[in-house]
Design brief:
Number of strands: 0
Distance between the termini: 74 Å
Strand content: under 5%
Structural class: mainly alpha
Largest sheet: none
Order of helices and strands: HHHHHHHHHHHHHHHHHH
Number of helices: 18
Low-confidence stretches: 280-288, 362-368
Helix content: over 70%
Shape: elongated
């Protein structure tokens, strides 16, 4: 199995998988051991200098081998990979070098496209933990210690959630039309099942990463581009509109580290608006909050904005900027005029917010 990186025979992946199944089929954990050894083999294969073409070829051989193992395994390899990630996997993943991740990411992508792995498996196993780790980083040194792992997970997520088109000397292959369609189907499944709630709950973590200056600028820009593309996906927005309360609650419950609160407040509001609105996020979340076309999302987003503004008014270090935002709030709630119905609509959303915020909203009500 470890010789797959050097074995160029077309039938080698199938033959090795067949022989392993015949020899170890009575063992319940043989698929788990195979996956663990594959990761070891990928680590060893990067000890020699490889170009993009060689890396892609090696990744395809290992992926084809694992597809055959998946066919031989009574319960498939997905459950075993999930268990591997939850046990030693995350620790081993952090220790992989950049070259190893270039190959491993292709293997995971290939297995996901062909259904051997559920897309939720790498997301829950390594991607989500990587996002949480990055959001909590408190120093440039800590970022450097985890940089390879974090950047690899961001690349993996982009491969899973966007249609990658390879360029010259690219480290990742371009999927054909059939493979793209399969990947889009897997992606839609994530937006429709229980994993979607976990995905949405970590969108604020991406916002925290974007404003965390201890992280590399290029990395933060890549995170922002990933979040923007993901949240603008039609299937993602459809899933969000089906679960408006869950989405808003995920943002409201997110704990922002004290050193990031001032920078993250407006970015969180803009990120939530991006999920539910067609407007470009570069408007900074300044679009008018009241929309007669999307009353449900309007009520949820506006209520979140009012609650967040009240919460940060109580934070001394942030009160200066929030006071400025509070003065802009009437303009964000309405354009040039407000009807009596809109004023009543706003007054219903003010319940339970900070007194100063309520005073501003009552001003809007008087305009009606």
């Amino acid at each position: 199995m470890l010789s797959l990186s050097r074995n160029l025979a077309p039938n080698a992946p199938a033959e090795i998988a067949n022989s392993l199944w015949y020899k170890y089929r009575s063992s319940r954990d043989w698929s788990y051991v195979v996956w663990d050894n594959v990761i070891t083999g990928l680590q060893q294969s990067t000890s020699i200098g490889l170009g993009p073409t060689e890396r892609i070829a090696i990744a395809h051989r290992y992926a084809q081998f694992l597809l055959h193992v998946d066919l031989h395994s009574a319960d498939g390899i997905d459950c075993h990979v999930t268990r591997w990630f939850s046990e030693p996997g995350i620790t081993i993943s952090k220790s992989l070098c950049c070259e190893s991740w270039l190959i491993t990411n292709i293997v995971i992508l290939y297995l996901t496209v062909h259904g051997a792995l559920r897309m939720s498996t790498p997301l829950q196993g390594v991607v989500f933990p990587a996002w949480e780790l990055a959001a909590a980083i408190f120093s440039a040194q800590e970022y450097e210690e985890n940089r390879v792992f974090l950047e690899a997970m961001m690349t993996l997520c982009r491969l899973l959630f966007t249609d990658h088109t390879a360029t010259s000397n690219d480290s990742y292959p371009t999927l054909d039309l059939m493979e793209r369609q399969r990947l889009r189907t897997r992606r839609k499944g994530v937006f429709q099942n229980a994993v979607f709630e976990q995905l949405v709950a970590r969108i604020p973590s991406l916002v925290a990463i974007e404003v965390n200056e201890h992280l590399g600028k290029t990395f933060r820009e890549a995170v922002r581009a990933l979040r923007y593309d993901m949240c603008c996906d039609k299937a993602f927005r459809l899933g969000a509109c089906r679960n408006i309360g869950m989405v808003v609650d995920s943002f409201a419950k997110f704990y922002i580290p004290p050193h990031l609160q001032e920078q993250a407040h407006e970015s969180l509001v803009a990120a939530l608006c991006l999920i539910f609105n067609e407007e470009d996020e570069d408007q900074g979340g300044r679009a008018v909050l009241l929309s007669q076309w999307r009353l449900s999302t309007t009520a949820a987003v506006t209520s979140f904005v009012l609650q967040q503004t009240g919460r940060y008014l109580e934070t001394t270090s942030c009160s200066g900027n929030i006071q400025m935002e509070l003065s802009d709030l009437p303009g964000r709630l309405v354009n040039n005029s407000v009807t009596a119905q809109e004023a009543d609509f706003v007054s219903e959303m003010v319940k339970g917010v900070n007194v100063k915020v309520a005073a501003v909203v009552s001003f809007v009500h008087k305009l009606g």
